[in-house]
């Protein structure tokens, strides 16, 4: 009992302002024993409170009762606190669950668009299209072929671009450019471009 009275006296001595009824923040430090002591809490408004607890204080995580010593420094807590004569006393302490880590979708490896020996010997794609680009963005192009049909072809990270027989990049491609596209369908049946060629050496369909 003397120990707990000393704890309350210490809490009253260091408190600058009365603790609010509902205190939200993170645990900075812990003083005392498992059954009685002080929790040092930095509230969301950046104020620091030293609040006493004892055997009557309920500590809870995920709806299960826990011991005060299981709370780790830096964990967020929500506490119901009483304040009398500038002393902060904790009645209940709830440890907030950490938000689940955000999982990013896997990204396909990006390779260079430069020519390779295998691409020259065994060109990828079993479909070919020739026509004029109607719409264009970094993800896809819309091609109007000679029969007036429109085809949406998605661009891959490793799509090769050739302008007049020389390796080029996507920024060199323009709307209304006449192109030859070697493409294929992926496992989702989406039409993807493996090679886009334009310029004076473009073969006529």
Task: Give structural attributes.
205 residues, mainly beta, 2 domains, 5-stranded mixed barrel, 13 strands, rod-shaped
Biggest sheet descriptor: 5 strands, mixed, barrel
Large-scale geometry: rod-shaped
The secondary-structure class comes to mainly beta
* Helical run tally: 2
Query: What integer value in Å does the Rg equal?
Result: 34 Å
CATH architecture of the largest domain: Beta Barrel
The overall strand count is 13
Total domain count? 2
The CATH homology group name of the largest domain: Nucleic acid-binding proteins
Strand content: over 45%
Gap between N and C termini, in Å?
A: 96 Å
Name the helicity range.
under 10%
How are strands sequenced across the largest beta sheet?
A: 1-2-3-7-6
What is the mean pLDDT?
80
Polypeptide structure, described:
This protein has 205 residues and is mostly beta strands. It has two domains: 94 residues, Nucleic acid-binding proteins (OB fold (Dihydrolipoamide Acetyltransferase, E2P)), CATH 2.40.50.140; 82 residues, Nucleic acid-binding proteins (OB fold (Dihydrolipoamide Acetyltransferase, E2P)). It contains two helices and 13 strands; from the N terminus they run αβββββββαββββββ. The strands form two sheets. The chain has a five-stranded mixed beta barrel with strand order 1-2-3-7-6. The protein has a five-stranded mixed barrel with strand order 8-9-10-13-12. A hairpin with a 4-residue loop joins strand 1 and strand 2. The longest helix is centred in the N-terminal third of the chain and has 13 residues. It is rod-shaped, with a radius of gyration of 34 Å. The N and C termini lie far apart (96 Å).
